């Protein structure tokens, strides 16, 4: 009687170990590239959230000193420092990070200038709609939602602050620049400078992007850029 | 009389040994998330569709006529970009042992000669076809997985910026 009970216990233990080993195998089934990508993302998010946590004031984009003006459109110190901080937290390596970030913002301000020149605007309603669409996408993709929630929590922001400050800043630029892009490409097609494509392929999209960038670059070259006196020493390339 | 009998016998044997092919297809909704210091955390979503046919010529089994396409019906704004998707190839593996039975690389694919029909505004990464057959020896029914491997790449300013994705078509014959 005792012998058979021991035998049953031993068999059950072996079965349990077997099941656990299969379980462990399936839990570690994520492929190595996925794991490496996740690790890379997590590492950057740690630095990004730490930057947000100690620089919440930088989210007030249009406040603080004006460090430069592009065709009369100001670049505020807060926006510059936000973008610089995020670029550094993301591991960006540039010979001169200040020049790099300023160059990027100059391009964006030239795009804003062009948008206003062609009377292209983005309404609050459009921004809200874009943000709601994004929220829905994250809610339907639990893995990404979890990462976003972790970033928001570690940044010391509320969800509302994230969507209505930082993401609102992104959404406005994305929508405005997208409208400008569509306008410039359509004009280019009308003028015969780019061909209207039957189907949108990656090659066509790249061709349109190159055309759009070349138009913006032309305006950057002729843009009136002035850097405030106290910041002149910071930007060696200007 | 004898000739007619032999002819019928050959016909019956041929029909029983060669199965007419069947086509199977699948569509994989693929999503990735990435971070950009300029645009924040964004989701990149697209589809990979894969169809192929299977048939038996006893004792050999074949998987042929591979159609693989990657597309995005709702592309992002070009400022964010939609990256690029490339076909790496197709692997056929035994469903139970995982043994590789055969493979095709991207050089064995051509542009889909039939041309798919796309909804307006769809971004097409690729739409390819391969007439090459992957054959293996099998005397009994088994499950095999035909796996289309694709590479999705974003601009290097995104973190992370490349993923290998797998779209699996399962055959049981």
Features:
A: 8 helices; B: 173 residues; mainly beta; 4-stranded antiparallel beta sheet; 10 strands; 9% helix
Question: Could you explain the architecture of this structure?
Answer:
- The complex is a heterodimer of chains A (238) and B (173).
- By secondary structure, chain A is mainly α.
- Chain A is 69% helix and 6% strand.
- Chain A has 8 helices and 4 strands.
- In chain A, a hairpin with a 2-residue loop joins strand 1 and strand 2 (73-76).
- The radius of gyration of chain A is 26 Å and the shape is extended.
- Chain B is mainly beta and 173 residues long.
- Chain B has one helix spanning 2-17; strands spanning 22-36, 40-57, 60-72, 84-94, 100-105, 110-111, 123-130, 134-137, 143-153, 162-172.
- In chain B, the strands form 2 sheets. In chain B, strands 1, 2, 3, 6, 7 and 8 form a 6-stranded antiparallel β-sheet that branches. A 4-stranded antiparallel β-sheet of chain B has the order 5-4-9-10, with no helix packed on it.
- Chain B starts with a helix and ends with a strand.
- In chain B, 31% of the residues are buried.
- Mean pLDDT of chain B is 88; it is low at 11-18.
- At the A-B interface, helix 2, helix 3, helix 5, helix 6 and helix 7 of A face strand 1, strand 2 and strand 7 of B.
Radius of gyration of chain A: 26 Å
Q: Which segments of chain A are poorly predicted (pLDDT under 50) over 5 or more consecutive residues?
A: 16-28
- Poorly predicted tracts of residues of chain B: 11-18
What kind of sheet is the major sheet of chain A?
Answer: 3 strands, antiparallel
Could you tell me how far the N terminus lies from the C terminus of chain B, measured between alpha carbons in angstroms? 37 Å
* Widest β-sheet, arrangement of strands of chain A: 2-1-4
Number of DSSP strand runs of chain B: 10
What structural class do helix, strand and pairing data of chain B support?
mainly beta
Shape of chain B: elongated
